[in-house]
Design a protein that fits this description.
Helix content is about 45%, strand content about 35%. The chain is of the alpha+beta class. It has a single domain, classed as Nuclear Transport Factor 2, Chain: A. The longest helix has about 45 residues. The chain is globular, with a radius of gyration of 22 Å. The relative contact order is 0.14.
Length: about 160
Amino acid sequence: MRQHSIITGIQVLVIALLCYSCNNAQSISPSGLEEAKKAIAESNNIYFKAFQTGDSSIFVNRYAEDCCIMPPGAPAVCGHEGALNFFKIGYYKIGLRNGKFITKQVYGDGETYVTEEGLWESYDANNQLFDDGKFLVLWKKTPQGWKMFRDSFSSNRSAGLK
């Protein structure tokens, strides 16, 4: 009878430890993910201010130092220098002056990387919509906070309409 009590006690202890571990792991991940979602929303809210003001530093600072922007129909541009060149093309050649991001989902545990899925719109100097599409951004947690690490997007419009 005493041996049965010891075995039952050990089983209860193991079950309690497993439940504690599961609950503890669940409480860590959502808070990290919520932190990432908040940082992404804040970054997205100021991203297009770079094009409104012509201040490329706002744009470049959204990206990690080892970032790559992967536009459709063109090679990837990497690093802050690549991000700066990408900004200049958007601002001076394309005439991008405003836009918005619509985040549909953020995936991941919020620890080191998360992936954002969403839609975007681009506006010209007359506040006319000239392009829209979808994107996937891999965000990286850096010492400076959450930064875009890989930025991939495509237009919803056919190449003949641009």
